[in-house]
Amino acid sequence: MTIPAVESWAPRELGDAPMMNRRVGDVHRFLSNRPAARMVGMKRTKMPKGSYSVLPFYPLGREGSPVTSYETWPGMVPVFKDDRTMGGQDTAWQFVIPVDGRYRITVNGSFTTDTGLEDLRHQLTVEIGVNPAAGTGDAIAAASVDTVTPSQVTNYTLSGGHSAVQRLSKGSKVQFAAKCLSSPAFGWADDEVSQQYKFGSFAEIRWVGAI
Predict the structure, then answer these.
(1) Could you give the CA distance from residue 33 to residue 45 in angstroms, rounded to a whole number?
(2) Torsion from C-alpha of 111, 112, 114, 116, nearest 10 degrees
(3) Are 144 and 128 in contact (CB under 8 A)?
(4) pTM of the model
């Protein structure tokens, strides 16, 4: 499917079936199934202090019940097979944009740290990167289009999210990375702490308009 052309209507214009299909039917079909996708965070622990680490996600439908991941257009969430960085598990790392447009990118995360701080000094940031030069977390940060700073909710945990609208071209890749300065190591989507850490850790993207 492609973005349908927007045609102008002239006063007292006579419509026929092909015209109505183009101007009404095609537009309705696109808007009722516009590009959108959601990935659920896969647990990653012992990410090191001081450098950005890529945030992993489950392949579509593999996060367990309830299933909340999806893609409306095939190929938006590619699967990386037998990912060595995740112990040979299949993972998802990125969104791939299927058509040009403005997209709302949302990332929400729950993080654990190895250091408890009572006075709200945890320094943890999440970067939303577009078309990083390489697959490392620092490359994603270098390609950042927006930054998320989750709130500290306990001495050891942080949680929060953010949405941003970006103009993206077909084939662009959107990835996510995090860094913590206050703890020797930190974790993401840690379902050993709480199942909500997994389901509360996600990224979502939705087409919201033409460029």
Answers:
(1) 36
(2) 100
(3) yes
(4) 0.86
The two three-digit tokens of residue 109, written as one number:
């995360």
Q: How many CB atoms lie within 10 A of CB 22?
A: 14
Q: pLDDT (tens digit, 9 = 90+) per residue, 43-72?
A: 999 999 999 999 999 999 999 999 999 999
Positive or negative, the CA dihedral 161, 126, 49, 84 is positive
Q: What is the 3-state secondary structure (H, E, C) of the chain?
A: CCCCCCCCCCCCCCCCHHHHHHHHHHHHHHHHCCCEEEEEECCEEEEECCCCEECCECCCCCCCCCCCCEECCCCCCCCEEEEHHHCCEEEECEEECCCCEEEEEEEEEEEEECCCCCCCCCCEEEEEEECCCCCCHHHHHHCEEEEECCEECCCCEEEEEEEEEEEECCCCEEEEEEEECCCCEEEECCCCCCHHHHHCCEEEEEEEECC
Taking every pair of Cα atoms in the chain, the longest distance, rounded to a whole number of angstroms, is 71
